[in-house]
Amino acid sequence: MSFLCLESELLALQQNPSDPLLISWFSMGHHLRDVVFVIQSQRNSFHVRQAEKLRKDLLLQTQYKISLQLLIIAECFFLSFSLSSQFGKNSSWIMFLEEDTRVKLQKLHEVLKKFDRRKEWFLGKPLHDEESTIIHHYAFSENPAAFEYPDFSAGWALSIPLVNRLTSKIEEEPLKSDFTIDLKHEVALYIWEDRKGPRLTGVPELCTIPEHNPRAQYCATTVSSRSPLCGQPVKSDNIFVAVKTCKKFHSDRVPVVKKTWGKQASLLEYYSDYADPSIPTINLGVPNTERGHCGKTFAILRRFLSNHVPNTDWLLIVDDDTLISLPRLQALLSCYDSSEPVCLGERYGYGLGQGGYSYITGGGGMVFSREAVVQLLASGCKCYSNDAPDDMVLGMCLNALRVPVTHSPLFHQARPEDYAKEFLAHQTPISFHKHWNIDPIAVFNKWLKDDKHTEGLQKNTKDEL
């Protein structure tokens, strides 16, 4: 999710406050009216449906006898802070939920009653790093485990006194970092404010145990146990896979692809600066660059729409050091409509505090529907140089087209050890990236390989460690 709202999103809300994609408001009584529930969603038909399911689940629990305040936020993560003046007088808490979070309202009410609502509180299920990582800007390198941040899947809460102070802070001092990489860590840093604000207070009842697990009876929140499968998985021959490589990696990285996930692909081509018939690789006429690869990526986009490759609904672009589970991707794509302009992967942000843009980071894998590629190329969007960062240029183009980038936490720009163990424990991941100081084949076998070709499609969410 974007760390801060773009001005255009705030303006849209002001001009059309009844837009159900931006905000959905319900008030019915007296009991839980001191809690504002914020459902974090995205501008995509699948995610709109998921957020609506959660909204209905919360309302059904009330049986229309108690009061709920519900906001559905699309992309504008801190929209609720801008609206806190509307809630501050009558509310005590803002509770943030992801689409897959499940809430037991009565249990949650009992938990929140334990905390003095007049004080500043930052509540959640704590995660911590075991070593400093690039995804957290190598923060707390001396002792990474000393800093805790919330697992968004479990839900997290802020008291209104803290929200009011943060609202003023955001107006005066937006996000300092140019890059928004891992929102949950950066939110915690922003709130902590170098010891000026509160640290995260761990709440055991905020859980990421699957909702039907017997241990979940002690939890106020759980996660949906349903795997990301919305129908028949997309057929493998409806996904065209493009692997970006170069001559110097033909002998070490390409063999890893062939020994692991490459065998799962029906349609796959390797694109390089050198045509090697033994692999084979295809030279797109774009020289290799040490950084960026924008020229190569746009050549792949053009080739995808040409007669040189089979006509498919989906395009997957990956680096030669990306590890991915194609069966799990096939399952996930069953939830998306390829007739929509879909751009899917792990979302990062650039300059969001100054009105920047979001983009799908390339290392974790970039997935495009055919319609998205058509709109991108028809717009005239192009690289300003061959070595420009391809993922960021695409983000700029999509932002100009008002086409949203869709985030999935199942894609990973880094290695498994760069993420908190308990964060990965309730995932069935789709991708990881980089071969630094790891055995990539062992990583694939541990994290991404299913014993049977389709076993991962029906796998329930894992229990917590």
Automatic annotation (TrEMBL):
Name recorded for this polypeptide: Beta 3-glucosyltransferase a
Cell location: Endomembrane system; Membrane
Residue intervals of the Fringe-like glycosyltransferase domain: 87-175, 233-438
Membrane topology: Single-pass membrane protein; Single-pass type II membrane protein
SUPFAM superfamilies: Nucleotide-diphospho-sugar transferases (SSF53448)
A family per Pfam: Fringe
Main location: membrane
Single annotated GO MF: glycosyltransferase activity
Family: Belongs to the glycosyltransferase 31 family.
Listed InterPro entries: Fringe-like_glycosylTrfase, Nucleotide-diphossugar_trans
